[in-house]
Amino acid sequence: MITEITTLQLQAGVDLRSPESSAVHDALSRKVREEGARFAYYGQSIEEPRTAFTVVGLGPENTQKKHVSGSSLANTSTVTTRIVRLNFHPNPDPSPALNNNHHPSLGVTEVVFLHFPADLPNKADIMASINKMRPVAARSPEALSLFDGWSMEEHTTNEADGEEEKIQFYVNLLGWVDVEAHMRFQGSDDFKRNVHHLMDIQEIRRAEMHHVKFYKV
Question: Which of 70, 113, 146, 151 is an S-S bond match for 91, by CB 3.0 to 4.6 Å?
Answer without folding.
Answer: 146
